[in-house]
Amino acid sequence: MMTLSRFTVLLTAALVAVPLHAHDLMESFIEAIVRPDQLELLITMGPATALRLIDPTAKPQALTLESFERYRERLLKEGAGLFVVTSSKARLASAGVEVKLTEEKDVAFKVTYPRPPSGLLIFNAAFLEKLGTGFGGIIDASDTVGHHLGWDQITPENPTLVVVLPAPGSAPK
Predict the structure, then answer these.
(1) pTM to 2 decimal places
(2) Is 73 within 8 Å of 117 (Cβ atoms)?
(3) 12 Rama class: left (phi>0) / alpha (psi -120 to 50) / beta
(4) Binning pLDDT at 50, 70 and 90, where does residue 15 land?
């Protein structure tokens, strides 16, 4: 029988030997927030994934604030096309893109759109087609008045989330 102290030593050794990651490097996390005046997509991904979007031959690397600056303009340009968002069968044009390196060294995009009207709202993760097999993410959509619109796991084979945006001022369900 293993003693408690021996178990503690083995557990500690195992945790030290295996590097811990905040998330899978091939995963992205997307939060869609419908605000009274705009739609925001907050997209977070690992640096190797972001670099692969702008240079498919890029070798995985850690980004520093200095090296990130070399890629900023290309990432901003890529950010506008990460998603194709449609509402009432019309494609929404992005109104702005921001990109930053987080404290965890992930790349975070903020893409804004005009506030869509109520009805079907379709998020298509166009960037997953560019990345290919093995990449994916989780998308979660809500508004600021308490409606949780939906979520899904997205992959290159299933890159779309379809939700229904309620009319402004309607009570949350």
Answers:
(1) 0.82
(2) no
(3) alpha
(4) very low
